[in-house]
Design a protein that fits this description.
By secondary structure, this protein is mostly helical. 41% of the residues are buried.
C-alpha cells in the first residue's frame, strides 16, 4: 500500500533502525549508520544507486557488522531495498531472505519485513509471503513510534500502518490463489476480532468483504456500528477500499 513511504522513512530516519538499542553503539552499528549517511547522497545526486548498493554490500561483509546480527540484517536489507528500487527483484528477494532471519529487534525488522513480503507476493512466493504477513499482523500490529511520522499520524491509523499493509497483502493473495483463501479469511477474521473498533479492525473488515467472507449487509452493519463509535473510521474505510482499486 505504501511501499514508497517505507523507503522514504528509511532514508529520513536512519537512527530509527536502532531505536530499541542500548546507548552503547557497537562498531558494526556505527558502520551501518555510516552507510545510511552515504545513502543520503542520493538526495543530491552525489552518489548513484549502484554506488549505494556496492557500499551496502561491502558493509554486510565487514567483520564488525557480521558480529552484530541486527547490524548485518539491516545492511543486507538495505542492499535488498536498493536493488528492488532499480528493478532487480529476484536478486533483492534473495538478499532479503538472507537478512530477515537475522533480526533480533522487532522494530528494526518491521518495515523491511513488509517490503519483503510484498516482493514475495509479486514473485508468487505465496507461502513465504503469507508467513511474513502473519508475523506482521500478530507481532507488529501496533507500533507507537509511527505516530512520530507525519504521514501516518495524519492518516489516523499510525500505529497500525505496517499491519494494515500486511492485511492488504493477505487479502490479495487470498483473492489471487484459491489455495490460500481459507488461510487469508482465518487470519483476517482473527485480526478483526482482536482489533474491534480501531482502524486495523476496519481494514480486516474491508479485506474480508472483498474476499467474499462477509456479505454486503453484514459489512454495512459492522461498518455503521464502528463509525457510530468512532466517526473517523468511515473515512478510513473509504481510504482502504481504494487500495483494492489500485494496481
Amino acid at each position: 500500500m505504501m511501499r514508497s513511504v517505507f523507503l522514504l522513512v528509511l532514508i529520513l530516519l536512519p537512527s530509527g533502525a536502532f531505536a530499541q538499542t542500548a546507548p552503547k553503539v557497537t562498531p558494526g552499528r556505527a558502520k551501518v549508520e555510516a552507510g545510511y549517511k552515504f545513502q543520503e547522497k542520493l538526495n543530491d545526486s552525489t552518489a548513484t544507486e549502484r554506488q549505494v548498493i556496492k557500499n551496502w554490500s561491502r558493509i554486510a561483509q565487514d567483520t564488525d557488522v557480521k558480529r552484530d546480527p541486527d547490524a548485518l540484517a539491516i545492511a543486507l536489507s538495505c542492499e535488498a531495498l536498493e536493488r528492488f528500487k532499480i528493478g532487480e527483484k529476484r536478486m533483492s528477494d534473495s538478499i532479503f531472505a538472507r537478512g530477515i532471519g537475522k533480526f533480533r529487534l522487532k522494530k528494526s525488522k518491521a518495515y523491511f519485513l513488509v517490503v519483503y513480503a510484498d516482493l514475495d507476493r509479486e514473485l508468487n512466493h505465496y507461502e513465504r509471503a503469507m508467513d511474513s504477513y502473519e508475523e506482521i499482523i500478530t507481532t507488529m500490529d501496533s507500533i507507537p513510534e509511527l505516530w512520530d511520522i507525519y504521514f501516518y499520524r495524519s492518516s489516523g491509523y499510525a500505529p497500525y500502518a505496517y499491519a494494515i499493509d500486511a492485511s492488504l497483502g493477505i487479502a490479495k493473495i487470498g483473492m489471487a490463489n484459491a489455495d490460500y483463501h481459507k488461510r487469508a479469511v482465518e487470519l483476517l477474521g482473527d485480526e478483526m476480532a482482536r482489533h474491534d473498533g480501531d482502524a486495523l479492525g476496519i481494514m480486516a473488515l474491508v479485506c474480508l468483504h472483498h474476499l467474499g467472507a462477509i456479505n454486503n449487509e453484514s459489512y454495512k452493519f459492522k461498518l455503521d456500528l464502528a463509525a457510530s463509535r468512532k466517526p473517523e473510521l468511515r473515512d478510513v474505510s473509504v481510504t482502504f477500499e481504494k487500495q483494492f482499486k489500485a494496481p
